Every structure is written in structure tokens, then in C-alpha cells.
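Course assignment 3, question 2. Fill in each field.
Student: A.L.
Task: Predict the tertiary structure for the chain below.
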Amino acid sequence: MRNVHTKVTLEPDLIVKLRSLARKHGISFDQALNDALRAGVAAGDVPPYRLPTRALGLRRAIDLNKGLQLAGDLEDAETIRKLELRN
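Answer field:
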């Protein structure tokens, strides 16, 4: 593959970061720029989905590892309650 020379205008903060990366990895500025562009293009245009975590406020007695069993038990209890109301 043949290198193509082109002119780009970089913002000063990017130049600082790229120079720092180049020094850190012992590569040229051009290589640092190309690596950064490749990483950005590979990541795609969609930013990664991030969802902040938060406390659920669950009681410690609830074991979430058995969530389906718990859901089934709750559903059974509700069905029994409704059947008892019919009598």
C-alpha cells in the first residue's frame, strides 16, 4: 500500500496528546496519528452504550442468582391469592 500525503489541521490539544502517545510508545508522530485514526474508525460512529449503575434497594434476603425461581414463586402466590378470592 502506498502512503498518501495530505494536509490536515489538528487542534492544539490533539497535537499534545499525539506527541505524548508517540513518546510513550516510542513511535513517530505520524504513526501515533495513524494508530489513533485506525482506532477511531474501528470503533465506529456510535459511542459505546453506557448505563450508570445504581443501588436497587433490595433486601439482602433476596438471592438474584435464582431470579426466575423467585418470579415463578411470586406468580404462583398471586394465582393462589386470586383463586382464593373467587371462593
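Instructor remarks: The chain has a mean pLDDT of 86. The helical segments are 12-25, 29-43, 67-86.
Grade: pending
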